[in-house]
Please model this.
Amino acid sequence: MEPLDLQENIDSYNSNRGCSSEQSLISLFFLHYSFCAYIFDSHLFLTKRPIMVIDLVDILAKLVSFDTRNDGPEKKPGKECPEFINGILNEYGFQTEVLESDGFHTAFGRRGQGSFKILFIAHYDVVPFGEGWKTEPLLLKVEGDKAYGRGTCDDKGNIASLLLLAEKLAQTDLPCNVMIAATGDEEIGGRNGASMLKDWLIKQGLFPDFIVIADGLHQQIIHRRRNILPAFIKIKEKLSKIKGTAETVRFTTETYGTDSRHSAYLRPGVDRHAMLTASKYLDLHPEAVVTDVRGGFVKSNVVPDWAEMDVIHPDSSGTEVTYDENLTDLMRLLLSISQAAFPTKHSDKGKIISPNLLSKEGDLWSLYCDIRAMTNDGEAVKKAIEDAVKGHLELFSLKVSSGVGYVESDPDSRLIRAMRWALEKEGITYKLIEGFGGSDSRYFAGQGSDLFDFGPEGDNLHGANEWVSLSSIRENAEVFHTMLEVLSRDKNPV
Model:
């Protein structure tokens, strides 16, 4: 029998499938890692086709290289990344399409039939870079088992795990319907990604029995998450005159043991928030007044690295200057606002009210607070903030959203039991925990499906020098596949 020529085989494969040059890009991407295999078809004729073998580092480097920052309405991720993801899924027998909602795109693929449907969902959008990077955020740098770059841990490392899972499924063909999705707006709320996908799946008759949100950390099974209740506070500028000496004071954020700036990961009493530190400064200097505030403001769920406050210390012999009475009172009250008391279920991660954004338009100051708590009662939270500022500050407006809702999955569900069994089989130590931040799980909770969140080892989410453990990405793909095997068995060990 004559040996097979690799290049001839690849060209023939693409030609037979009717691939255009654009559609062949994925095949070419794999060319360096591909080999040919003999496969018997149903008539036992010997045929030849390439089996694509994923190189994890190259796949992750390619995913990181896509600039998928969500940074305001004019900076949405494009279609290139989801098309790349779908191209790989297509190579492993998935039927794929790119779903679109309001300019945001979701990669989606499905394959197989069986007794149950399961959805694995991740996201490819990332937060802005911020400051303090030691490497180029869009250029993957590997040091031992750690791979550095924006999105490596949140959440492109998880996408890499799902692509490795797709590769395994192509070799085993388990009797179940597996769906893999990657959304493009999780970092700004998920309404045009996960929320849209949920509605689309229902309309298509594809809503899953089981859901794995590939957006966790440290290989822990996350079955609870706090609700996100966005709060918008507006005040009008109120200018007054005073004599005194001017000073600019700079405050920095410090988080113990990590560079993460995700506000959900803050631990009040241990970590230091730059804006709350500025408020404490005014506690210590009760006569000082504020003329302006600046900061490293990034986005709603990112704690600013720094804040600067221009203050005036009263002095009758000083120069007369203009200051803002309401801005002064707002900054002084930030600590009080952060301690606003409202009813909530217990959370292992605590209640957080994090003042992350401050801006001015015309004569209106706008403050955004990222609130995390195990409550869905936005009105109670609004009342608590009103009580915190009552008699001290006149609000122009206050709006608190009730959010999508908190997540609380049954730790004894069939899906979680299967995942625990798989982790133990693969020798991975785990815990069943409450997660820090919100995730797309909130859109699927309460729909009757078992679900949990899971992710690789890594750190510095939403901060500089984000990294992921490469070995944990491989392990997670193996664990997911083992979990599917368990769920597919007639005699389920769990």
Q: What stands out?
A: The longest strand covers residues 239-252. The two ends are 48 Å apart (CA to CA). Residues 283 and 409 are 42 Å apart (CA to CA). The mean pLDDT is 90.
